[in-house]
Amino acid sequence: MEDIFVVKRCNKIVIHGRRAGESLHEPAEALGWYRICDTRTGGFIGDGYDQEEDARKECHRLNAASSRVTAPESSG
């Protein structure tokens, strides 16, 4: 059975401002963050994670809980 919840990397751009009169400023930083996507709906779960490992752990937990709920009961 395929996983229902998967990790999706999202782009996060941090723009550094500058004060009036400054001619130089640091360039924008392209960073990433991670969200948990529900493959059934295309929606996202939670607020997101800075670390991919944290998002993967939560996906694993959600998929494990979901498989227990959706597993067919044996009639024996």
Give a topology summary.
Blueprint: E1 5-14, E2 29-38, E3 44-49, H1 52-70
Antiparallel strand pairs: 1-2, 2-3
Describe the structure.
The chain has 76 residues and is of the alpha+beta class. The chain has one domain. The chain is rod-shaped, with a radius of gyration of 20 Å. The model has no long low-confidence stretch (mean pLDDT 83). The chain has a three-stranded antiparallel β-sheet with strand order 1-2-3.
Distance between the terminal alpha carbons, to the nearest Å? 23 Å
Number of domains: 1
Number of helices: 1
User: What kind of oligomer do you see?
Assistant: single chain
The low-confidence parts are none
Shape: rod-shaped
The helix-and-strand class reads alpha+beta
Order of helices and strands: EEEH
Query: Approximately how much beta-strand content do the residues carry?
Result: 25-35%
For the biggest sheet, the summary is:
3 strands, antiparallel
How is this structure best summarized?
The chain contains one helix and three strands; from the N terminus they run βββα. With 76 residues, it is α+β, with helices and mostly antiparallel strands.
